[in-house]
Amino acid sequence: MVDAQENPLVAFYSMGFHEVQSHLILSEHAYLGYVFSISGKTFEKLSFEDRMLLMQVAKEITPWERQNTQHKEAVLLEKIAASGVKVSRLTEEQKDIFTIGIDADLSMGDPSCGLAIKRGAELALEEINQRGGILGKKVVLIAKDNKAVASTGVENIRGLLKRDDLLAIIGGKHSAVIDDETKIMQAAKKPFLIPRAAATKLTQSDEGESYVFRISANDDLASEFIISHAKK
What we know:
The strands form two sheets. Strands 4-3-5-6-7 form a five-stranded parallel sheet, sandwiched between helices. A two-stranded parallel ribbon has the order 1-2. The longest helix has about 35 residues, at about 50-80. Strand 5 (about 165-170), helix 7 and strand 6 (about 190-195) form a beta-alpha-beta unit. The chain has eight helices and seven strands; from the N terminus they run αβααβαβαβαβαββα. By secondary structure, it is α/β, with parallel strands linked by helices.
């Protein structure tokens, strides 16, 4: 039913994953930070002295909190290993990878299309990796859900572009989302693969070389072809 899951160790242990999961890989692929926050309205009700005290204590306790978290995680790892879970860490060679990003609607307007694109990419990368990867490196897919919202898609694209190991990004179905994302990909000069979005302007660049590649039909050409075929 489920191939794998990702969670912080405290969640992994508290929710009982160690009771049913056989392996745990410490990949160190992300840092999850919690923000210490307070309502502005509530904060303004405090006296100036209390505000200063609150901020001072928050700064003082931060190093302790991080050390305490590391200590707790070490204890949790011991408990997890003792329960029979095989704990392993990625080697430096395993961390040396290439990534392909995908940004599509995976949950809202038409998730079946986005999920199909994602699954197709997974199958393709599985074949590539079985043949030795690219330049000897494994290629990993990182999927982002834009929920058919252009601003979310743009945020996802910008996040993916921060990765030094990124080779290209695959887009989803919605041309309106792809249109906003294309501008960013052109500026970054990274290949943008759009297997589904068909709006004519998506592959037309006024800036010389285009970094957008498409396998779907161009709307202008497709409409003309369909009409001529319908006439026959």
